[in-house]
Amino acid sequence: MVNDIVLETWTKNGERTGLIRHRNDEDTKPLHAYRSQILVIFMIFSVLIITFLLSVIDFWIDDDQFVQSQHAIVKNKDHLAMKNREYFYQCAPIVSCDYSDKYRTSNGTCNNPNNPIWGSSNTPFIRLVDAHYSDGISKLRTSSDGEPLPSAREIQVKLFLNKQIRIPDKNNQLLMQWGQFVAHDVSNLAIDINGEDCCTYKNELGVSRACEATIKIPIDDPVYSKYNITCMRFTRAMTSNNYSCPLQPLTFIDDASHFIDGSQIYGSNDYVVSKLRSFTGGTLISVLDNNQEFCPRSSFNSSDTNKYLYNSGDSRANLNLGIALFHNMFLRFHNYVAFKLKIENSLWSDEKLYQESRRFVGAIIQHITYTQFLPIILGKNYTKDEVLYGNNKYDPTVNPSTSQEFSTGAFRVLHNIIPAQHRFIDSNYTTVQIVNVTDWMNCPYLLQQGSNYDQLLRGLLSTEGRLSQPSYNPLISNLMFHSNNLIGVDLLSYDIQRGRDTGLPPYNKMRQLCGLPVAKSFDDLIDIIPIDDIYKLETLYSSVDDIDFIVGALLETPENDALVGNTSRCIIRDFFYRSRVGDRFFYDNNGQSGQFSKNQLEIIKSINLDHIICTTSSVDNLQKNIFTKVDNGWYSPMKWSCSEKYMIDFKPWKEQYD
Ligand code: HEM
Ligand SMILES: [Ca+2]
């Protein structure tokens, strides 16, 4: 019988193979006479079975599958990362899932039925291109000729620092703030902060791993040289080694759930979630101050209790005033939704109210991101394509994980729209205060003084944003995290150095990945980078292949109405495509467990950031395009009043009882 099966296996199109015919011709011989043939067949058969089994296992854990999707951005498959699957082989936790559950888990596990940890917090950023380290493992990339790359600060000084274009943007500052809010939803790279002042320690005690990438400041630096500073502190990012998963080359872990699910509000694991919930009425814990609702305060050990930090789903909530404002806004919005849902469903438990409100808020964040934010970032024509607005179908072969190239490279290009200053505007639309963005970092308590919250919000809404351009504002380029009003660090130097720290591929490789021609010489960059910048690049880098990704990406002239150049656009689009199609709970994907009803979806699709602002602040009239700067006048025809326009109907959530 067994031989018969083998026979069938080797029959092609109904014809027997020569080997088998031969055996049939001689079937009078004793069995042992066929020993060698049987052995060969057995071996071939075993190899086939093993190959088949390996390919099944490979398919099951193959986190490179997303690139095979027909819409994936990747045009050149020769350059795909090979190492993404290592984590899944070696360190992936085993989780048990109930796929009929209507709600996301807090850490994002159990989204994909075949790969339940895809996109969950504490799993790696995927790489679109293999890591680039000089030793192939962890040492920062060097030039093609083996020499060190130019210092990140030297690049900033020679290429970007003095290029400030002061033309006001047609978008307002709120656009930038939404970008940072979404960035923190999908990406959180832990930094190896161990209290060392790396620049000092480097001189006195040698170099720890965390400190081995401090940034050299040129002696003729136009800013730092005045203070005789020649070293910028910088610590390397944590790696999977810090998460008990030693991998080579270095692999970096995303502490946030990779999905756009509001994890920066709620937390990316059960512990944080439980610390933020009030466990009554589905609400989050909040503090009432001066009749306004704010985030709870963290148990930050400060000698001055008035200088608290906020507790939220993401520790970066305190980084700058704009992001702190958004955390309060969404805390208030969550609690508002929970309150409204309770009115419709008085019998719902705290758990049900919390989960339904969280689901509602997560859906709105996705809706705003895809319909209001991305069309401006990527350009309206570009976002019309079905990559971003598809057929509402979930595709389980698409990996939704945040890519290293997106997080450390392409999306950071938008640091170029951070304005130097925020305006505080009162209810009469008079500017009452102008604040440097770098002066109010890590001091969210300032938001709670007087009417600062509403005034900053009015300022973000009605102040023009910084025009997208190949430079960062001078304050964020010199004074970030300053403690004494004198000198701080440089965000652009950090971004360049972080790219090297995390082994990002150089710019030319990213061009290739995105289907742009590979530049064989600096002159070939002329298709997309202005000639003056190409000359400067030539003085800095010894080869066109050495240019850092973010440097090339920042210099690219955006096409049409996009805010970013082609290469970053391609990487940003890749992420948001995968984040939509590869998220089983994406708000308008059909077929998800407990998907929104038709009426509910209609309401969700009608809600914009405008509604959220109206329900959570004293701002009482808003421009029709929320991210556009409009005239402040009360009677501007470009504005709608909150009381007329922005009611949210929660009736479709009323549960029908028979
Ligand atoms: C005032 C506004 C902002 C400030 C002060 C700020 C500051 C920072 C800082 C200090 C880092 C970490 C740098 C490092 O050590 O590597 C960072 C990371 C990042 N920023 Fe911003 N940023 C702002 C706005 C934005 C905006 C508008 C975007 C995008 C639209 C953005 C996207 C990102 C991303 C994707 C990361 C990496 C996050 C991670 O994986 O940890 N940021 N930002
Ligand atoms: Ca998330």
TrEMBL record:
One of its GO terms (cellular component) is extracellular region. Heme b binds at H415. Keywords: Heme, Iron, Membrane, Metal-binding, Oxidoreductase, Peroxidase, Secreted, Signal, Transmembrane, Transmembrane helix. The chain crosses the membrane at residues 38-61. It is found in: Secreted. PROSITE patterns: PEROXIDASE_3. GO terms for biological process: cellular process involved in reproduction in multicellular organism; response to oxidative stress. It comes from the Eukaryota. GO terms for molecular function: heme binding; metal ion binding; peroxidase activity. SUPFAM superfamilies: Heme-dependent peroxidases. The keyword NADP does not apply. Pfam families: An_peroxidase. This is Peroxidase. It comes from Aphis gossypii.
